[in-house]
Amino acid sequence: MSLRLPSRQELAYSVWWNLFLLTAGSALFAAGAQGIAVHHGFLTGGVYGTALLLWYGTGGFSPAAWYLLLNVPLFVLGWFCVGRRFFLYSLFGMLATTLFGEVLRFDFGITDQFYAAVACGVVCGAGGGMMLRSLGSGGGLDVVAVLLNRKWNIGIGRFGFVFNCVLFTASLATMQIDLVIASLIQVFIASVTLEHVLSLFNQRKVVFIISDRSRAISSEITSALKQGATVLQGRGGYSGDNREIVMTVTNNVQLKRLEELVFTLDAHALFIVENTFTVLGANFARRKVY
């Protein structure tokens, strides 16, 4: 009896895989925050950044404890306004971040402020990206951002940007300008790293092929490359002749094979490639429901 391995979609929706992403991501984020940020007086942005600012200002509680306290009203609100699956996974991510923030008390040993900002951004961004690759999040702003997006169509990224602007403006009252600038560098690098982690293994290429042999090309794509293709109806702008355009979605690995296949069948074909980040449905990723 052969053992069937789960498909990519089945794995992405499995409970254990999502818990792994949330656990590993929260550990990585907490390591960056506790191992670098707190030793240099940085803010990480978001709710954890707010927790750090409160800790710097009051000295009471730990950053992780402040993070937990700030999340309580957000999750009470989220219970009534977001999907149960997203809520429960995010609750797990928030509690894991709090736990790791309490137990991880080490120092990476980075002394240069700029290097520390870069390293903290990479580590925290990678951790945040891993959590967002799951069906939940690390809590904090994500819960509120999803709520605002569903109720008033406010962009998730836009809300985070506005919140961080307010946070860093407020931090100028108690923090040195050098630390605020270093924190901004850290947050920028974290956001770039997070985007790269989210796009990892998700990047796709949309390919349009204009050829007189579109039917043969479409047939070869489905049979030889084992991927879907759609034939679109078009018309030449100059000649006015009807044309069939083959559209297919592929990845970087298959792209060269697809190119070779097309030009083998028609050396005069027009081969257009566009980058795309999100492809949902059919045999690709399933939609993340909040």
From TrEMBL:
Keyword check for Disulfide bond: no
InterPro entries: DUF2179 (IPR019264), N-reg_PII/ATP_PRibTrfase_C (IPR015867), UPF0750_membrane (IPR051461), YitT (IPR003740)
Species of the source: Nitratidesulfovibrio vulgaris (strain DP4) (Desulfovibrio vulgaris)
Membrane topology of the entry: Multi-pass membrane protein
GO cellular component terms listed in the entry, alphabetical order: plasma membrane
Principal cellular location given in the protein's record: membrane
Keyword Nucleotide-binding: no
Cell compartments where the protein resides: Cell membrane
Residues that span the membrane, as ranges: 15-33, 64-82, 87-108, 114-132, 152-173, 179-201
Pfam families associated with the record: DUF2179, YitT_membrane
Domain DUF2179: 228-281
PANTHER family documented for this protein: UPF0750 MEMBRANE PROTEIN YITT, UPF0750 MEMBRANE PROTEIN YITT-RELATED
Record key words, sorted: Cell membrane, Membrane, Transmembrane, Transmembrane helix
Protein name: DUF2179 domain-containing protein
